[in-house]
Amino acid sequence: MYSFFVTHRPKRLNYNALPQEVKTMPEEGLPSGEGRVHGIDAEGIDTDEWNQLMRHLEATIPVYDKVNSIVTLGQDSRWRRHVAKSANPGMKVLEVGCGPGTFAERLAGVDLTCLDPSAEMLAVAKNRVGAARSARSEAP
């Protein structure tokens, strides 16, 4: 069994509502600058920026896996294999930010739920997971 859900744009980050431990964490290796919290500005992302981000991500769908492999120096495939090995048949799995389903399609025999803010990514993931399960003669 598998389910697919579109998530929504996150609401603005309220810096004042963050726990003190988060506000005072060291930012070593993270982008910094005035008004920034660990690489995220204290005001969050507005609707126009979010929509632009979604358009850019959706434009990468045809090359998403290749770009991911290049950016991670090929480690993404190894990470997915490693995590997939720990998924037992019948296990409930929630993949948050599933993108085009690259990881989800590897998961055999699990009760899978995929979340992504992009309806286009989610549609691709649903097709990939369905095709992979069909090829393994698994029930949808």
Describe the structure.
The chain is α/β, with parallel strands linked by helices. It has one domain (2-9, 43-135): Rossmann fold (3-Layer(aba) Sandwich). It has 5 helices and 5 strands. The protein has helices at 20-23, 47-59, 64-71, 75-85, 119-135, and strands spanning 2-6, 36-37, 40-41, 92-96, 111-116. A hairpin with a 2-residue loop joins strand 2 and strand 3 (40-41). The protein is globular, with a radius of gyration of 18 Å. It starts with a strand and ends in a 5-residue tail after the last helix. 15% of the residues are buried. Residues 25-40 have low confidence and may be disordered.
Features:
140 residues, two-stranded antiparallel sheet, 5 helices, alpha/beta, Rossmann fold, 14% strand, three-stranded parallel sheet
Radius of gyration, in angstroms, nearest whole number:
18 Å
Number of strands: 5
Which percent range fits the helix content?
25-40%
CATH topology title: Rossmann fold
CATH architecture: 3-Layer(aba) Sandwich
Supply the number of structural domains.
1
Number of helices: 5
Query: What's the name of the CATH homologous superfamily?
Result: Vaccinia Virus protein VP39
Main sheet record? 3 strands, parallel
Unreliable runs:
25-40
* CA distance, first residue to last residue: 5 Å
CATH class category name: Alpha Beta
- Determine the mean pLDDT: 77
Please state the structural category.
alpha/beta
Shape label: globular
- In what order do the strands lie side by side in the largest sheet? 1-5-4
Beta-strand portion reads 5-15%
Protein name: Methyltransferase domain-containing protein
InterPro entries: Methyltransf_25 (IPR041698), SAM-dependent_MTases_sf (IPR029063)
Domain Methyltransferase: 93-131
Organism: marine metagenome
